[in-house]
Amino acid sequence: MKMHIATTSMTLLFALPALAGDPSVADMRWMSGCWVSAEGEPGSGEQWMVPAGRSMLGMSRTVRDGATVAFEFLRITEDEDGKVVLVALPSGQQSTTFALLSQSDNEVVFENPEHDFPQRVIYRLMPGNLLTGRIEGTINGTERNVDFPMKKADCGSGDGA
């Protein structure tokens, strides 16, 4: 009997860290809401729905000189293998899937080393209700990155994305 309890305890001891560390779309709730561009023209920004059904849906828009110059539909979900992925569909182009590389309480990093640019997509929650979207990668052997600083906005104000 003591052997059985010890074996069960050891099994639970090793199983708990794996369960606690499993990536989850629900853990990205901090991204949900409306985010307006901190440096761009009014109407530029992103909006993310709260996690539901093991997915989050998002969209972004970039406005320049009063016209939409770029847009993107985004989905964070689980693939067929249960792995968390970001699927991006930018400005009507073909979709690209980025696999979850790392996740913490305030940062998520997705990567697709085979994609032309970007190869990494990063979201980081900063103090003061600020969100930074960042894309990184290599173009013709040169490291590049672009930051998209955003601030939380009221989704019903008309100022959001």
Could you write a compact summary of the structure shown?
This protein is mainly β and 161 residues long. It has one helix spanning 2-21, and strands spanning 33-37, 45-48, 55-64, 67-78, 84-90, 96-103, 107-111, 120-126, 130-139, 142-153.
Question: What descriptive keywords fit this protein?
Answer:
161 residues, mainly beta, ten-stranded antiparallel beta barrel, 1 helix, 50% strand
Write a structural description.
The chain is mainly beta and 161 residues long. The protein has a single domain (23-153), classed as Lipocalin. It is 12% helix and 50% strand. The chain contains one helix and ten strands. It has one helix spanning 2-21; strands at residues 33-37, 45-48, 55-64, 67-78, 84-90, 96-103, 107-111, 120-126, 130-139, 142-153. It has a ten-stranded antiparallel barrel. It is globular, with a radius of gyration of 19 Å.
Strand content: over 45%
Supply the number of structural domains: 1
Rough shape? globular
Main structural class: mainly beta
Element string (H = helix, E = strand): HEEEEEEEEEE
The radius of gyration computed from the alpha-carbon positions, rounded to a whole number of angstroms, is 19 Å
